[in-house]
Specification:
mainly alpha; 22 helices; 78% helix
């Protein structure tokens, strides 16, 4: 019971500080300090946690990726490539809503923690002149990049869920397909209500199609050639510098723009919080508590993955921490149970205040976090109802 009280106080602090518009990096560092104090962590344990967070390969890769994304975004904006992409999208899709969601959907195919920061300026560009709030733009950028994680085997979460549960990957993808469709539908329900009609434009030009080359090159490098995202971004940055003949001073200026202190603090805050969550064993303690209370297995299929997803903000996190336990509790782990557990955990990830995509989106648009949550929460509620219905049917 004490673990629940401690974690509730930490989440309350996070939501309160975010509501007061503190920078998310500072918020998560404060939450990490409260977490360490609540669990009476020794100075040595805290130092080890900080060292692990700073030297974690994910921290390094994410810092490099976000820095390069900011560099590339600056180059594309300075050379009117972003505008060219939006004009080409208008010619290709014509319907306003499809134009707006095209970039989050496209870039969402990349299993990248920093992808939301890449699509954000394109959502901003495509919504110019429309009566769409910063919070709605944030919801669009965040929500429409995530249907892929239910079904795309490029994402490690679904691969890990299949491996741990023993459920055939194809079967798990088919079970999760309804969730991806539901996400798309709820995205349209809770955003772009006043955005209607089509755009009459000329046929897309050769230059317009070529404007997509930077984005498609990254996707091809990552998906087809299995190159890590940060290396693909580095190759693209160098190519763009050479193509547009940037002088050394302009290159230095672009890199300085990319290496933002806010971004570094944000990443350190997220990684330190996750590191301390693992060190304290908070999620496992709650799981053991619920088991000691004799909670039936079906609610545990929802509660344990949801809590883990909410606290870690990462799909791999809730799968790795709860699926082995659930398999032990439910021998055979039927298909309906696996799908419900995955959906519940991912709903927790979507709602998590430490979900990197949500954090980056909120930061880019300078949006009110609660304003984004006002759309995320009802959309997640519908997603959960669909998951329960599928569970009942498959059972």
């Amino acid at each position: 019971m004490l673990d629940i009280a401690k974690l509730f106080s930490v989440l309350t602090l996070i939501f309160y500080l975010l509501r007061k518009k503190f920078r998310i990096g500072s918020v998560l560092l404060a939450a990490s300090a409260l977490l360490a104090a609540a669990y009476l962590m020794s100075p040595r344990s805290i130092a080890v946690g900080i060292g692990a967070a700073v030297t974690n390969q994910v921290t390094i890769n994410l810092t490099l990726s976000l820095t390069l994304i900011r560099v590339i975004e600056l180059i594309l904006r300075e050379n009117n490539i972003l505008r060219g992409m939006m004009e080409a999208s208008r010619s290709l899709f014509r319907k306003r809503k499809l134009i707006i969601i095209s970039m989050p959907l496209l870039i969402g195919m990349l299993p990248s923690l920093g992808g939301a920061y890449f699509s954000a300026p394109m959502v901003e560009e495509s919504t110019k002149g429309l009566n769409i709030s910063k919070e709605e733009k944030g919801f669009i950028n965040f929500w429409f990049r995530h249907p892929w994680e239910f079904t795309l085997p490029l994402y490690p979460g679904i691969l890990l869920a299949s491996a741990i549960s023993g459920m055939e990957l194809r079967a798990l993808i088919l079970s999760n397909l309804i969730y991806a469709v539901t996400m798309l539908l709820t995205g349209f329900i809770f955003s772009m209500k006043g955005t209607t009609g089509t755009i009459d434009t000329a046929r897309v030009s050769r230059e317009g199609l070529l404007s997509f080359l930077p984005i498609t090159s990254i996707i091809l490098l990552v998906i087809l050639f299995n190159i890590e995202l940060q290396m693909a971004l580095l190759l693209l940055s160098v190519a763009l510098f050479l193509y547009y003949r940037y002088s050394p001073p302009r290159i230095f200026s672009a890199i300085r723009h990319g290496l933002s202190l806010d971004v570094v603090l944000l990443i350190l805050g997220v990684m330190l919080f996750k590191e301390l969550m693992e060190t304290t064993g908070a999620v496992n303690n709650i799981g053991e508590l619920l088991l000691s209370w004799g909670v039936p297995i079906t609610p545990l299929l929802v509660i344990l993955p949801f809590i883990s997803g909410l606290l870690t903000g990462v799909t791999v996190g809730f799968v790795s921490s709860t699926f082995p336990l659930l398999m032990h509790l439910m021998p055979g782990f039927p298909a309906g149970a696996i799908s419900l557990a995955f959906a519940s955990g991912f709903i927790g990830v979507l709602m998590s205040p430490v979900h990197v995509c949500l954090v980056l989106t909120r930061e880019y648009f300078s949006a009110d976090m609660w304003g984004i949550y006002r759309k995320i929460l009802p959309a997640c509620a519908i997603l959960f109802v669909v998951a329960v219905i599928e569970y009942i049917i498959l059972r």
